Each structure stands twice: as structure tokens, then as C-alpha cells.
Amino acid sequence: MTAASASAPALARPAPGGGRTSPNMWIYVLLVGGLVLMVGPFLWMLLGSIKPQADFLRAPTLMPSTPTTDNYQRLFDQLDFPRFFFNSSVVALAVTVGNLVFCPMLGYALAKLRWRGKRLIMGLVLATLMVPAGITLIPNFILMSNLGLVNSYPGLILPFLAGPFGVFLMRQFMFGVPNELLEAARMDGANEFRIFWAVVVPIAAPVLATLGILTFLGNWNSFLYPLVMAQSPQMYTLPVALATFATGQYQADHGMLMAGSVILVVPVLIVFIVFQRWITEGIATTGLKG
Amino acid sequence: MTVPALAQRRAAEAAPPASRRPWRDDLVGWTFAAPFVILFGIFLAFPILASFVLSFTSFGLKDLANPVGSTVVGLKNYVDLFSDPVFWTALFNTFYFVIVGVPLTLVFGLLIATALNRGVSRFRTVFRVGYYLPVITSIVAIAVVWRFLLDPDVGLINMALGGLGINGPAWLADPVLAMPSIIAMAVWRNLGFAMIVFLAGLQAIPAMLYEAAAIDGAGRWQGFRYVTLPMLRPTILFMTVITTIGYLQLFEEPFVMTAGGPLNKTLSITMYMYQQGFTFFHQGFASSIAYVLFVIVAIVAFLQFKFLRSDT
User: Fold this and answer.
1) Is it the case that residue A8 has pLDDT exceeding 60?
2) Which of B85, B110, B153, B222 would be B218's cystine partner, CB 3.0–4.6 Å?
3) Contact by Cβ (8 Å): B294, B207
4) Using CA atoms, how far apart are residues B262 and B260, in angstroms rounded to an integer?
């Protein structure tokens, strides 16, 4: 009896891990409130993109007075947004393919093969993970202008084909591939390239998906480098175009700028919502890269 | 790196593929490594060194056709830089952004992760996706949208304040409010990243520890203070370093929202480097700015590792 009453307060108090079974309403209320703040600006963007120009000349309202596609129309007629969209897609896809080819190869060699120079290469590649992007900007610009590649697709793509982040991610994964599996393939007489292609790559498919999605998103949103390298409007990527118009002659054209933002943001949102499990788990396990 | 990952790594290094032909091993290894290493060498390793060399020259637009012919000026760029009041302003602004922005980002990220981990079983994916959305979105688009949100005449925020009878300020045009506005936006954009990483860290903490703490009479707060925080230390350290390195490179937000103004109050180091290098084409001088930022990033990362590791 005494023992029971002594332990009663401990039982009555919800255990820290026990919240899972008895959800607290106030936590939900705060989280939902926060969620509104997180999603609000996106809704504001969408609503702004369908407001007629007249709405920006009077007292602001949340909803458009008469929804219109006029802003999108002007992006396509007055500015070359299909072209910017195409440029962004070409650059991001090429960079993604490059990283999906080169990073797993080096990652495998670093984790599973024995070769002289391995430690040096590993140290160099991992050391550059922390280097600010601005450092390579000016030398790469000088290099590209001497190669005649400023304002071209190769100029926008080449420097990003081989990213250190991908090597880090793939190397981490490759350590987990059981050696017995590789040994068994070697016993069967497969050479290292066949083992890589027929045994390692299929196991790595989910990690490759994560790397591909993260590389695509990162490059789609990339700004500083293309800002320097794309010098004429026909080579602009979407972020460069949007920033140029937002700080230039279309500064106050909020409707058109919101429509431009929608075009830049929506493909990424679709990719994210479809593949969100791969993205968040990839980030959580490596703990890197936004 | 987690404990299982370390164990895997030791196992892997203890048992490399056996071979009695080291030259053949080298050939195979380098064949796998070569494509990456060549691209890496040309576009990453070489530019990092070249940037260092450039910072000792007066490289400008005229040298673009013949980079080797640019004039070596020794430490002049660095001397000029350290006596340049605009550089100190940019340095101050960048540190202001980091010192206020990083803790806020991590605290909000940790709060949301803790709430999701402890109190929420339903709609967890909805919350996770919702809070993470801004992280994967282009900073340029976000900056354009926020500039519109903060617009004194047609923006949502001053419209809402007006509804409460408050006459909202011109956020981005006000020298005192411009940087806090940019910080608020950065925290909003990046807290989702901290949340995802913290959530993974929290889920790795064994429930046993909380049960043991509860038996010892620990409440929720004490559980958080004496179980969660110590167990999460490596994650917090990692997030502090990563977020600080990212925030030290502030660029897109002031570029789009304020152009560094008003009165240079939001000019960041990277923005100053961009202006010097690509508006005025003082690329030697701009390289010295880039290298100073590089050194700052290295020192800050080192100090954080040292300070946060030894402190208990």
C-alpha cells in the first residue's frame, strides 16, 4: 500500500517518452500555428501571381479582386521565361548526371579498394567541403573566359560536375556494403568494374536517388556562379533572371515577380513532395547539405 | 559520424580486398578515381590555389586575356582591405547576421524537432514537409517574396499591422530594421534543416534513458536538460558549425532585398567581394576579400569544434 502510493506520482506524471500515446493539444496548436507561418509566404506568392495589376495600386488585400493569368502571360510574351526554364533544366540535369557518375566511382574506390594516393585524395576532397563557394568564383571566371566558355552551357556546368558532397555521401554508404558480397563476386571471376556495375550500383540505388535529387535541387537554386557566368539574357537561369528583373526595371511589378517566383519554386516543390522521404532521410543520415 | 558508421569503417579498413599485385590495385583504384579527380583538380583545387595567388596581384579587366601578365603587388590588397572602412562594415554586418541568426535558427529547429518527437504521432509527415519546404526553395525566390511581404505600401505584414491599428515601418529601407528583417527571413528559411537533423538525433536517443530519468523523478524539463541536451551534443556542434559556415557566406538575401543598403547596413562580405570583382573588376582585390572570408570560416569552425567539444 505504501509502496503503491509512493510510486503513484511518478506514474501519474506523463513520462517524457510517453507523450507519443497521449498527444498534448497545445503542442499541436503551436505546431499548426508555426506551420501557417511557414506556408503563408508561399500562399501569398501564389495569390500575388494571379492578382491583376490594378490590385497593386490600391490598399493591399489578401485575395485578388479578379484572378488573372495576365502576369504569367507577360512572363512568356515580354520576357523569355521558357528559355530561362530550359536553361535551368539543362544545367541542373547535366550536373546531376555528372555527379551520379563520378561520385559513386570515387566513393567506392575510397571505401572499398586499396590504392596508393587514396588517403591524400580523400583528405583533399573532404577538406573542400568547408571551403566557401566564393573562393573559386574569380579563378573559374578567368579560366572560363580564357577557354571562351563564359556565357555558355559548358561554362555553367563543368565546375559542378564533380562535387565533394556526393563523394562524402557515397563513401559513407559504400562502407556499409558487405565485403563478403564483393568477395563472392571476385570468386566468381568478376573484375572490379563488373563488380561495381553489377553488384554495387544496384544496392546503391536508393542513395543514388537521394544524391540525384539533392544535386538537382541544389543546382536548380544555384545563384552566385550563374550570375557571374551567364552574361546575356539567353543564357540566364531562372534565379539569375528573377533576381535581375527584381532588382532592375521590373522592381515594382509585384504581380509578374510573384509569377516568376512560382515558376522557379513549383517544380522544386513537386520534386520535394513526391520524393520527400528520400530527401529527408538522406539529409538525416548524412546530416549535410540543404 | 555515428558509432555504427565508425565500426563499419574500421571493419572495412581492416579487410581490404586481398591482392598480391599492388600495381594492379593502383591502376584499378585510380581508374575509378580519375574522372572525379581530374574535374576536381581543374575546377576546385586549382582555383583555390589560384585565388590565393591572385590576391597578391592587381588583376583587373585588362589582364583577363593574359592572366600570367598581371602585376604582383605583394600585400597591398590586404593592406588596402584592412584600412578600408567599407570592408569593416561588411565584416560587422556579416557577424551581426551570424551571431543573431545562428542561435535563433538552431533554437527554433530544436524546439520544433522536440515537439514533433515527443508530443506528435499524427500528421508528423505533414509537419515535417511543411517546415522543410523553404529549405529546398530558391533563396532568390524567397527573397523576392519576402521583399513583397515586407513592402510598406502593398505588403501583407504592414497590412496585418494596419488591421491592428499599427502603422508598420518601411522594414528594408530602415537602417536599424533592415538586418533584423533579413535575419528573420533566414531563420524562417533554415529552421527546417535544423529540425530534420535534430529529429534524426533525437530518434537515436534510447527511450530507456528517459525512463531511467523518470524513475529518478526527473520531469519533462529535467529530462530535456539532463538527457536530451547531453545526448544531442555532437548534433548541436555539427549544426552550429554547418549553419555558421553557411551564414558567413550571406549573399542572395541582401543582393535581392536591399542591394546592401540602406547606408551599407546589410552589405555582407560576399556581396562586397562580388561588387569589387564583378562590378568594378578589381579581381585581385576581390580575391583577397575571398581569402579573408576563407580564413574566417576556417577559424570559426576550428573554434567551435574546440570550444563545444571540451565544454560539458
Assistant:
1) no
2) B222
3) no
4) 7
Contact list in B for residue A279 (CB cut-off 8 A) is 136
Contact A106 B213 (CB under 8 A): no
pLDDT single digits (tens) B72-116: 999 999 999 999 999 999 999 999 999 999 999 999 999 999 988
In a domain, B76, yes or no: no
* Average of per-residue pLDDT values in chain A: 87
Does the distance separating the beta carbons of A20 and B118 come in below 8 Å? Answer: yes
Q: Give the separation between CA A52 and CA A71, rounded to whole angstroms.
A: 8
CA distance A241 to chain B (A): 10
Is B259 at the interface with chain A, CB within 8 A? yes
CB < 8 Å to B301, chain A:
130
Whether the pLDDT of residue B194 is over 90: the answer is: yes
Provide the number of structural domains found in chain B. Answer: 1
Is the residue at B178 inside a domain? yes
Going along chain A from its start, the domains and CATH numbers come out as 2-71 (no CATH), 73-286 (1.10.3720.10)
Identity at B54, one-letter amino acid code:
L
Rounded distance between C-alpha atoms, residue A242 and residue B148, angstroms = 14
Residue B91 lies in a domain: yes
At residue B308, does pLDDT exceed 80? no
Q: Which three cell numbers stand for residue A257?
A: 515577380
pLDDT of residue A198: 92
Burial code (b: 16+ CB inside 10 Å, e: under 16) for A244-270 equals bbbbeebeebbbbbbbbbbbbbebbee
Range of the domain at B254: 84-310
| Mean local confidence (pLDDT), A82-106 | 97
Q: Which residues contact B311 (CB under 8 A, 6 or more apart)?
A: none
Torsions phi, psi for B60 (to 5 deg): -145, -170
Grid cell digits, residue B15: 579487410
Q: Is residue B180 assigned to a domain?
A: yes
Interface of B with A in 27-86 (CB under 8 A): 28-33, 35-37, 39-40, 42-48, 50-51, 54, 59, 64-65, 67
CA distance B138 to A271: 13
Residues 166..205 of B with a Cβ closer than 8 Å to A: which?
Answer: 188, 190, 192-193, 196-197, 199-200
